[in-house]
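Final report, closing paragraph on structural work. Over the funding period we assembled a curated collection of sequence-structure pairs, and we close with a single example.
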Amino acid sequence: MPPMDTPLDDPLKSWWCDAETEYAFLGFSYEVEACQSLQQLTQDFLDMRHRFNSRYVRLYSACDREGFYDDIVEAAWKSGLGVHALIWFGFDGDDVWIKRRDTLFAALHANPRAKFVTRVVQFGSEPLFDNVLPHEELASQVIAAKANLSSLGIPVTVSEMAYGYQENGGAQDVLDAVDSINIHMLPFFSQKASIANNSWDIVLTDLLFFADHGKGKKMYFDENGWPSVTSPGAQPDSPEAVADVQNEHDYFALLDTKCEFLKTMVGGGVGWFAHIYSDTQEPGYGIYDYNDQLKFKFSPRTQC
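Its predicted structure, as stored:
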């Protein structure tokens, strides 16, 4: 658990374990569109930390309430979690992300605890796939963000799937700009998908793309999972793909069986998040159902 008082010096290098020592299960994606209260954030973050041994929480979507990121920082501080923050582009093609970027950066500079809690700032989700910005401009945004946050020691990345890079000629400029590679791993949507137990080749193909082009950078599976149900806006591209609770469970169990392999990957091994904390946040992907009950036993390995 963190100290009660905010450090007056700048011990960031010794505050967290080196990323090169981190692999296996890291924590949950957590949707914030509901603009949860500080009390709710703290309750959920403590649950992640103590029930599941989470180290981090990866934010998903956006809340534009004034002071919301300060609540995130406070809840994460109290629970001992690090935060993968997110500049959310959304799906409307507008420029509201610019205000979100500036608001987040202001909070990171103003809140004395923010630099101790915030492990990375992500541009996302899937900005390349959604053609939000040309890859050259996205790379420039990453570089500018790194300069803005350099005094705080907070790295910057992009939250994206392999295909988003590939359909942009590899977008090597973005891969070169980011500090870590934060990967969307959703094999259910592959044209080759069937059941989760057969998905390793899909996962490995995408992972090796990033290993081959990432120049040794740390890799994370952040938006990562298999749905228990589909929704009208999230249909599989394979008629053989099966969405049910058993397959959601089996996908995470599969990652557990590959722990030793993932540990050997460049950058100190691959760490992964479960997408997402609750079905109330995104139908079908939650570890918890709509009644706040676990859908299956979930105790993934944090080391091997």
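The two ends are 23 Å apart (CA to CA). DSSP finds eleven helices and eight strands in the chain. We thank the funder for supporting this effort.
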